[in-house]
Amino acid sequence: MALPVGWEGPESNFLGLEEPWCHPDYAGVYVLPIPYEHTSSYVRGSDRGPSAILEASRQVELYDEQLRCEPFREWGGIATASVLDLGTQVDRAAVDAIEQFVRPYVDRGRFLVTLTGEHTGALGAIRAHARRYPNLCVVQIDAHGDLREAYQGNPYSHASVMARVVEDGHRLVQVGIRSICQEEQRRLDETDRITTFFAATILDPSGPYEGKAARWIPAVVAACSSPVYLTFDCDGLDPSLVPALGTPEPGGLGWYETLNLVAALAAGPGIVGMDVSEMTPIQGLVAPQFCIARLIYRMLGRIKAAKLVGRSSPPS
Q1: SS3 label, residue 101
Q2: CA distance 176 to 217
Q3: Largest Cα–Cα distance of the chain, in whole Å?
Q4: pLDDT tens, residue by residue, 237-267
């Protein structure tokens, strides 16, 4: 069966999957590339992140040795939509356009992975999911609080995206934060809608959790309500894993603790959707985008193993 218009084949889709495993009629996961960038304030180029991740994903091994399966089969396949071209739309107009683009896919009941550029693009995807899940709890893996009311005069800055999420009425659980301003600290002090797990608190061996994921991950899960939407800024990871970032910060999460957190969230409150942002490719260096592509696939495996029903054989 030929792919319908608006969907990508193995030469450009996530993981390079052949039909029928990339067909949207059967796939349990949709990957939505939305390369939005407008307010990046340090290194620019996050709009090239989604395409770099997709290209690198075609080098990812499909077998997960920990789960002892090929997760894409358990999902019934992974389909990749064609890139959303936002044209000249920015700020509120871009966020609204992203929400309109994502919403029909949420309504189809698939698990969505939105690949965007700067973190602002995640807001449209979050709002699309919130229409189906009004009690959404947003879990933010990030180096930065992103809680400024506005940055450089723009309330739709990448540094303000989580302020808009809280403004929308959602509970916010932040993990790995290690860079905030005084305004953001005041916001944290004045609201009980946000729970922040600072990197120094959970990762420092001298901290209250002694840097042990077995101690802080249950605390994160306990802070969440159901359902969870995961918004993943690539700078939440330590830059030794992913140096290709617009705003890098030292001291972030590691590979295994990130996967263990995702597995615990999936097994606990459950994860209903996710986005990935702020990958800023470095010419000639492919390791960062490969790391993120593989991480996305491993996350999908753990989410599927925890809670979702799929197929283990190809559709006829």
Answers
A1: helix
A2: 11
A3: 58
A4: 999 999 999 999 999 999 999 999 999 999 9
Q: Which pTM value belongs to this model?
A: 0.95
- Taking a C-beta distance cutoff of 8 angstroms, is the pair 242, 198 a contact? no
> Per DSSP, what are the bridge partners of residue 197?
175
pLDDT of 32 > 60? The answer is yes
Q: Are 259 and 279 in contact (CB under 8 A)?
A: no
State pLDDT tens for residues 127-156.
999 999 999 999 999 999 999 999 999 999
Residue ranges and CATH numbers for the domains of the chain are 14-307 (3.40.800.10)
Tokens standing for residue 95: 């966020």
Q: Is 57 exposed, middle or buried (0-12, 13-18, 19+ CB in 10 A)?
A: buried
In single-letter form, the type of residue at position 262 comes to V
Please give the Cα distance from 287 to 284 (Å, whole number): 9
